[in-house]
Structures are given as structure tokens and as C-alpha cells.
Amino acid sequence: MVREELSRVLNAQERAEFAYHWGFFARLAQLPPEGEWRIWLILAGRGFGKTRAGSEWVRSIAEGNSQARIALVSSSLAEARSVMVEGESGIIACCPPERRPVFEPSLRRLRFPNGAQAQLFSAAEPELLRGPQHTHAWCDEVCKWPLAHERATRCWDNLLMGLRLGSDPRIAVTTTPRSVPLITRILEQEENGEAAVTRGSTYDNSINLPQRFLAAIEGEFAGSQQARQEIDGEILTDIEGALWTRSMVEHARETGERPDDARVVVAVDPPASANGDACGIIVAALGQDQIGRVLADCTIEQASPEQWARRVAAAAEEWNADRVVAEANQGGAMVSSVLRAANNTLPIKLVHASRGKVARAEPVAALYEIGRVRHCGLFPQLEDQICGLKTGGEYAGPGRSPDRADALVWALTELMLGPSHRPRVLPI
Question: pTM value?
Fold first, then answer.
């Protein structure tokens, strides 16, 4: 109603300018908070509107200060350009045409008409922030910044040491939460007033999001603790005594191309009955670099033996698996016959659990700890389960049984802890 009234009293030029008046369209949570904060952290679920908030903050700084020198830091230069600068909610799209900055890709620089500048940086190259000085910085998706060799924290430290221009240097941080050391460090500064934290959920912005997106994200994370993280914007905490921590899982995250596979297996943890627990089905590979990689979680719930066997056969075909490893404690002959009925060419290996779940899982968790395993994607329900396995034999994760975690353990044991991977004892 207010917009309709304004459209009647404003001329064409005023209406065009009004479309870029962010303060009128933004939600309160997307506007900088009051106070003397040094860091403004927006910690919110996917689709909250974090990128738009960050872009508009940069625009307001640049338009209000011709001497502004702003660092734009993302996990890579490609993401800084495609999301922060040229994205649908990026800086260029947020600026009125007559005040739109010029992007100089070869120099990794945005030049605003009034003289303000913004420089692009990659968190993968923290040393490039050693030397440059800035008045402000916008750091996007810091929870995705590379963790290897402490690149994320080194990048942050170098940025802080260069934030020494102007009278009021500040940083805006926009990210979906994950349990990583840098985000913990920033949150600790909330108590002393150095950091102001805005928290929010995907649903806070539901009016601007397609229903198909909302349905898809609910389907992906439904029933998992990570729904609290990816949708509600909460940071998941570790269970005391757990074999896996969230930080271990995040360190194992891998994107991009992977080396050629030396072996691929599909591991199966069959349910005790058709109406019982889920049938855990995990696809994993051993790369030519001797790193184990989790490729897919094909687990199926409340399925008949014929249904889960067909799912196993489909996974083996899709990933060109050279072996199907199935736990046979719940009736080895039945498991084998059901799988053979789905595909009589499946290369099946039956394994028997002589130790408890946690005892079998401990050496696999050790592989994660020394960096020998990677997750090629997000596997929220599987990751919830492995983070619920505790020393001493207790399971404190979601559901009655860690079916996905059991299948993962069988897969990585076959690939990396079998007899062929034990050191040879040479005769003296």
C-alpha cells in the first residue's frame, strides 16, 4: 500500500532511484546493528539474504566515503567475483546504474565513481593480505574458507593487521554456520562487544524464496541435526566423548575434481526386518593418492529386502563399484540371496561383526583424524550419526541405530584397513 502511494507522487527519476533505497526494502536483521562493534557477523541459514546484506553494506560504505578501501574476501577469487561482485545479489546489481562501480578483473578491483575502491582476495592465498591496508572488509562464507595449513585463520589474522586505515575500521562477515575454529573465535568476541551477531533462519526470507527451493532444502536436511545448521543457522556442538567431532568432518570436506579411483565399494548395513531400521548404503572410493573418499549416501528407509537390494545394485552400477560389502550378522545367506536376486553379477563380500559398532569405528575415526578420508559433498544424516558414536560403546546420535555410520565403517575398513593395507613383516 505504501509503495503504491509513493509511486503516484514520485516522478520517473525518483521512482527509479527509490528501487535502490535499501533501507525501505530490507528486513531489520539485514541492516547494520547499532553500537561500536568492530565485527558484524550475520550467522544465518541458506537463503536468509546474507549476500544482499553484505553487498548493500559495502555499497553504503563506498558511497559515503570516497577514501574507502574495502577488502572483499571469499574462499576463492572465482567465488568473490561470481557471488560478491557479479552475483544476483552482488555489489554491482545493488548499485543504481549511474553510480555503478567499474569492475577491473585483471586488477581484482572495483572502482566506484566517487573514488572508493574494493579489492578481491582469496582465503586460499592468505599471504596476499599481508601488506595491503583497508578501511573496511566484507568476508563471505568464512565457514567455507580452506582449513588446511590454517589458511582460514592466517587469512583472518593478516586481514586484521591490515585494517588500519580511517578512523573506524569495521568488518562484515556473512556465513552459513559450521563448526570451524574461526567462527568460534569470532563468536567469543560477542561477549566483550567487539562483535555484533545477527542470527536468522532461511524462513525469515521465505517471502522472497521459491517454494520449490524451500521444499528441496527441507527434503535434503529433513530429520537431521544439520537442518538446525543449514536452515535455522545454529552451530552444532560436539557430543562429549564422540569419536568424530564436527571440526573433523569439516576438515574432511572436499570440493572440485578428485584423483582417479583405485577402488570403489558399496557397503551395506542391512536392517533386521522390513519394518525396522533403515538399510545403510554408502559408496566410497580409494583414490590413486591413497585417500579414502565418501562419494554417496544411498541409504533407504523402511524398505523391503527387494527394495534395498535394488538400491544397492543401482548404486553399484552407477558408481562402477568393484565390490559390494554387506554385513551378514542378520542372516548371511538371506543377504547374499537377496542381493543376487537384484543382480546376479554383483561382486559380493559378506563380512561378520565380531566386535561392537564403536570398536569397529575407532580405527576409521583415526583415519579422519590424520587426514586420510574426504567427504565429496554434504551428507547431513550420515555426519549426524558418526558424530553420535561415543567411546565406550554408546550411541548418542539421531535414530535408534547408526545404520549409515555402520555402512561407512564397513566401506572404509574394506578400502583402507583390510589385510592388503597392513604392513608386511619382512623376514630377518
Answer: 0.70
Read off the C-alpha cell for 243.
569419536
Rounded distance between C-alpha atoms, residue 34 and residue 55, angstroms: 18
Residue 237 sits at the vertex; the CA angle it makes with 231 and 241, to the nearest 5 degrees, is: 145
Q: How far apart are CA 111 and CA 100, in angstroms?
A: 9
Q: Does residue 54 contact residue 42 with C-beta atoms inside 8 Å?
A: yes
Sign of the CA dihedral with 370 first, then 376, 378, and 383 last: negative
pLDDT in tens, the chain (428 residues): 555 666 667 676 666 677 788 988 899 999 999 999 999 999 999 899 999 999 999 999 999 999 999 999 999 999 999 999 999 999 999 999 999 999 999 999 999 999 999 999 999 999 999 999 999 999 999 999 988 888 999 999 999 999 999 999 999 999 999 888 899 899 999 989 999 999 999 999 999 999 888 888 877 776 667 788 888 888 877 888 899 998 899 889 998 889 999 999 999 998 876 666 789 999 999 999 999 999 999 999 888 888 999 999 999 999 999 999 998 766 556 778 888 887 778 888 988 876 777 788 999 999 999 999 999 998 988 999 999 998 877 888 887 889 999 999 999 999 999 765 443 333 43
Instruction: Count other Cβ atoms within 10 Å, centred on residue 347.
Output: 12
Q: 198 pairs with which residues across the strands?
A: 42
Ramachandran quadrant class, 222 (left: phi over 0; alpha: psi -120 to 50; beta: rest) = beta
CA 362, distance to chain mean position in Å, is 25
Cell numbers at residue 381, please?
Answer: 544424516
